[in-house]
Predict the 3D structure of the following.
Amino acid sequence: MLTQWISGNEVFVELALEWDGLVDSAMTATPFQTLAYQKAWWTHLGPGELHTVVVRDEQHHLCAIACFFLFEGMLHFNGCVEETDYLDLISPAEQAVVAWESVFDLLEDADFPAWRGLNLCNVPDASPSRSILSGIASNRGYHFKTEVQEVCPVISLPDTFDQYLLSLDKKQRHEIRRKMRRAAAASADLYVTGATDDLAAAVDEFLRLLQLSTAEKEDWLNEGRRTMFHEVAAAAHKEENLQLLFLRRNGQNAAALYNFDYNDRIWVYNSGFDIVQFGHLSPGVVLTAGAIEMAIEAGRETFDFLRGGEEYKYRFGAQNTLIHHLQLEPPDRHRE
């Protein structure tokens, strides 16, 4: 294997034509590994220094991208932790072992910037990286620690919406049907942002609803995150991977979902609701149920609520998957 170390954001230019093709075949292929997301997060929210290890085979085909930022002596996956839901080495599963070994060969090179450990967040339960890194740590004498970081509740979607409703308990099934009927009777309906819409205006409207949802979200939405939402939306819209949904009534927006439609899965990235004006319509329930119905009609396999164990996700029938936090530390801290 051939390894290359690229310092700074030039990596997003240098690998622009290859990056997303590798993501499509990666062991963890999510919207958060895409070039647009990785670039936007680093540009507007990333701390420290960006360092990327690129691995190619002998024919110079791209095999792996390990995009880290170095902050206070620790290497983290670019995107870690708050805004991003899944992270990993970008590599096909069948090449992951040799790719990770190649990454560590370069990280341990004397010319690489000094670091004292790896602090890797949001690694999916199914990722081979968990066992691979445990083995690497054992072979190279690192201290390795892994712990469950958080849950990511998901729904495995059936063939029809009726089948989905029947999978829920009787009370929840009744509540969803009742609230959807009430919203329809009040002339509230779903609107999907399309190709001819003003996308920037639609994202601004979503962000307005996000801020109305809770005081925590209002404080969380700083200028960097606002800009990132716009840039990621524009890139996903261009690739036809964005699903920006609104629940509207009489020309006013009651609720919004900022989703990704990627890899046969709907990824519910964030949401916003005007509870004060439209709370009587249960806009969050109606919009989420409508999004699930759309996903089933489109033939998607999974509806992913992403990180967080909020109770409402389980009322929709979601089951937990896990993400993990991995830590590796050299035994003699020789990289300090």
Remarks:
- The mean pLDDT is 96.
- The chain has two domains: 2-147, 158-300.
- The CA atoms of residues 242 and 260 lie 5 Å apart.
